[in-house]
Amino acid sequence: QVQLVESGGGLVQPGGSLRLSCVASGFSFRTDPMTWARQAPQKGLEWVSSLYSGGVYATYADSVKGRFAISRDNAKNMLYLQMSSLRPDDTGVYYCIQGWYSTSSSLSGLRPLGQGTQVTVSS
Questions:
Q1: In whole angstroms, how far apart are CA 115 and each of 8, 25, 55, 100?
Q2: 3-state secondary structure string, 26-80?
Q3: Rounded distance between C-alpha atoms, residue 74 and residue 93, angstroms
Q4: What is the pLDDT of residue 60?
Q5: pLDDT computed for residue 63 by the predictor
Q6: Counting Cβ atoms within 10 Å, is residue 105 exposed (0-12), middle (13-18) or buried (19+)?
Q7: I want to staple 100 with a disulfide (CB 3.0 to 4.6 A). Which of 15, 33, 60, 116 is the partner?
Q8: Coil, strand or helix: which one is 4?
Q9: How far apart are CA 70 and CA 74, in angstroms?
Q10: In 10 A of CB 13, how many CB atoms?
């Protein structure tokens, strides 16, 4: 059974940083690409970033490019998202998702397995 548990969210001031973590189990994490997505209140899932299994090739949404960095530790079944220069519009619940996605529309109808972690950017 696939399990994804996100953590590391919180309340941060604009310009601040956070590091999100996701521990995965129940599937072959080291061979699967992984994705971070977020959901703002009353909005659909927004694709943020994806990373191939080897941990080298990554893609980012234009809105986070240059500010966020995705990484993984296959030995620990962990996925990370380092977020810096945070802005109020980064606020939302962040989910890690098994698989490769590259647009928000490709996430349409998907229900994240984890509970997500809340990120609130506010002064």
A1: 12, 14, 24, 19
A2: CCCHHHCCEEEEEECCCCCEEEEEEECCCCCCEEECCCCCCCEEEEEECCCCEEE
A3: 24
A4: 97
A5: 96
A6: exposed
A7: 33
A8: strand
A9: 13
A10: 10
